[in-house]
Amino acid sequence: MATNSTDLMRAAVLVGEGDPDTALVVRDEPLPEPGIGQVRVRVTAAALNHLDVWIRKGLPSVPKPRIMGADGVGIVDAVGAGAEAVLAERGISVGDRVVLDPGMSCGACRACASGDTSLCRHFQVLGEHVAGTHAEAVVLPAVGVHAAPAHLDDDAAAALMLTSATSWRMLFTRAQVQVHERVLVWGASSGVGTAALQLCRAAGIETIATTRGEDKVDALRELGADHVIVTGSGEDFGDRVVAGVEDITGGEGVEVAFDHLGKVAWEPSMLALARGGRYVTCGASTGPMPRAFITRLFWKQLSMLGSTMASRHDVEALLAFVRRHEIVPRVDSTFALEDVAAAHRHLESAAQVGKVVLRVR
Ligand SMILES: [Zn+2]
User: Fold this and answer.
1) Which of 3, 97, 213, 298 is deepest in the core (most CB within 10 A)?
2) Distance, CA of 123 to CA of 117 (rounded, Å)
């Protein structure tokens, strides 16, 4: 173990809001102890998500100090009361390498009873509502750890869960995409975008990716994009996508528009969708208030779907699929935990294709 004493661990701690150099400090923190039903995982690698950037900016503002980080991989090294039995049900013991489900539900409400845990009214996210993975150890409910897929190294395993599980739920649980359908993936070089391309390729689903510049086209094709529309960043951004989809589909449109951009993608998606098409989003990074366009909604019989994180069922289905198809999440770059501020700046620069990973040990 890499800590200086048995009771301390290194952690990237959010102490303020704004600039990563002042909002984040890397320091020794008390090593957390697992409570009832919890396990402690010695983190070997963790990933950044846009969630971390938003939280750092105060959107949403969380109590500080707070260790952020929703994604990680590591070794189970301590268990609280009752946790061992929960782990044993899934064939996991102390010493095993695990990936973490960042979504935590109450286990007691109607949504939890139905198994759709991401609809839980008390849903919480690792690193947002409780201490997260950007540290040498993290404590979480035993139900949230899963055996790490053996074909993934630590960097790739750390990069897997939040974006791939989010993407899985959007595509297969919410939009119910079928093999003969076509999916338009907005902002495809993002974490959820690259995951969507990989999942669709493995499932044999045709994809059309959008990206702002030519520089990412090859990487997107490698990940599974059948077509790439280069949008530029001008005001005709949406028009270019609508025209591109029309060309590629011979005027039919796509069955599913997969989005995290929000405002800029909403109206062009309604234009680019085929009749009966589904728009699904997990974000609104360009803004939350597009024109509603209700005439097009009913005339084309569109469905506008929201999606957040993933249920336990989604996570289990995703992991089985990732193992079966040996999917390896795309890691854009790795940083040492001590360089967390640089990792934040890199993610924010939008220069990356895929995930930004922190090597913790
Ligand atoms: Zn619940």
Assistant:
1) 97
2) 8
pLDDT in tens, 197-243: 999 999 999 999 999 999 999 999 999 999 999 999 888 999 999 99
CA of 113 to the centre of ligand 1 (A): 8
Report CA(17)–ligand 1 centroid distance (Å): 30
Q: How much helix, strand and coil, in percent to the nearest 5, is found in the chain?
A: 35, 25, 40
Rounded distance from Cα 123 to ligand 1 centre (Å): 7
Residue 310 CA to ligand 1 centre (angstroms): 13
Alpha helix positions (H), the chain: 20-23, 50-56, 83-89, 110-114, 154-168, 191-203, 217-223, 237-248, 263-272, 294-299, 312-325, 340-348
Domain segments of the chain: what residues? 8-148+330-359, 165-306
Provide the β-strand partners of residue 104: 124
How far is it, in rounded angstroms, from Cα 136 to Cα 5? 12
Topology of the domain covering 165-306 = Rossmann fold (3.40.50)
Q: Report the greatest alpha carbon distance in the chain.
A: 65
Residue from 92, 99, 120, 132 nearest 11 by CA: 132
Separation of alpha carbons 236 and 104, rounded Å: 40
Q: How far is the CA of 114 from the centre of ligand 1 (A)?
A: 9
CA distance 265 to 223: 22
How many A from CA of 311 to the centre of ligand 1?
A: 11
Q: Do 183 and 256 form a contact (C-beta atoms < 8 A)?
A: yes
Residue 202: CB partners within 8 Å, gap ≥ 6? 224, 321, 325, 327
Fold assignment, 8-148+330-359: Quinone Oxidoreductase; Chain A, domain 1 (3.90.180)
293 CA to centre of ligand 1 in angstroms: 34
Ligand 1 centroid to Cα of residue 222, in Å, is 39
Measured CA distances, 354 to 38, 192, 243 (Å)? 31, 8, 26
Q: What is the pLDDT of residues 169-190, one digit of tens each?
A: 999 999 999 999 999 999 999 9
